[in-house]
Automatic annotation (TrEMBL):
Organism: Flavihumibacter petaseus NBRC 106054
Keywords for the protein's UniProt record, in alphabetical order: Cell membrane, Membrane, NAD, Quinone, Translocase, Transmembrane, Transmembrane helix, Ubiquinone
Cited PANTHER family: NADH DEHYDROGENASE SUBUNIT 1 (PTHR11432), NADH-UBIQUINONE OXIDOREDUCTASE CHAIN 1 (PTHR11432:SF3)
Recorded family membership: Belongs to the complex I subunit 1 family.
Protein name in UniProt: NADH-quinone oxidoreductase subunit H
Localization per Swiss-Prot or TrEMBL: Cell membrane; Membrane
NCBIfam families: PRK06076.1-2
Amino acid sequence: MMLLSIDLTFLLEKAVLISAVIAISLVAAMYSTWMERKVAAYMQDRIGPTRAGWGGLLQPLADGLKLFMKEEIIPNASNKFLFVLGPGLAMMTAMMTSAVIPWGKEIHIGEKVVSLQIADINIGILYIFGVVSMGVYGIMIGGWASNNKFSLLAALRGASQMISYELAMGLAIIALLMLTGSLSLRTIVEQQSTGWWYFFKQPLGFLIFLVCAFAETNRTPFDLPEAENELNFGYHQEYSSMKLGFYLFAEYINMFISSALMATLYFGGYDIPFVNDANLVNSWGVNAVAALQIAALFGKIFLFIFFFMWVRWTIPRFRYDQLMNLGWKGMIPLALLNMLVTAAWQLYRHA
């Protein structure tokens, strides 16, 4: 009976945490669309959305309602099951990556200690790469099932782009793992909270990871799968209503999770800069410090999201041959060099 009670408490705790992370990810994706319009307007000396709510704050809700209310259209020549599966798979893989990210250290509810991480597994980075590699299936299935040549070409572009840049991203992570000695994201954050952030030890690795994150999320200047002037809106050309909404939401959720991952791996995660967390706990309490840690992590995330948007409205889209040349002849050799230099440095340190 006691075991059943413990299991129910654990399941309830995880269910609440999962629901909170899903809600935060969806809200972040919704308001990233508003933020993108405002950032673009500011950079182009415009105002941006202002009609729906104060400062246009209700514009994402209006857009979501529009997608819900639009007519569902499934082309007659499409594979209907796969046509529906594609956007669902894209959305599911985007949401699953948040499971291993530590959003804070812990909070105390009475005598109960609750970890602010859905799953602290010792292969957290491998889990993220495994889930991210599944995301390409959502794009490929959607493009192929549409029975549209432009959608298929865009899906092939997206798949080759993601596979190419995953190699360089993986090599950059291998160099980081030589320093951390662990695949657990919480362990990596704790190491940075007691020392230097890994950005200062792996600046080239971070730059490679950042560029590959742009390619993985199909953001400008790597948005070749959605090149409207070439491919008529890309792999989701035949989609409408919330199926289209799922593809668009998945892109913004991927941007949010990529920002959280970069903050976690290279910028200390929930570590509060220039502050000794242990001393702060003694004076403020565990829960107050946890709130500050969450705020610190989200501050870093929003800075990265702003950078994603800044780049979109600053740098023009690459040609496809330039994209592939950069991936295979630029990013991968740089990542290999970074890995070899890191390995040599580690051998020298421990010799």
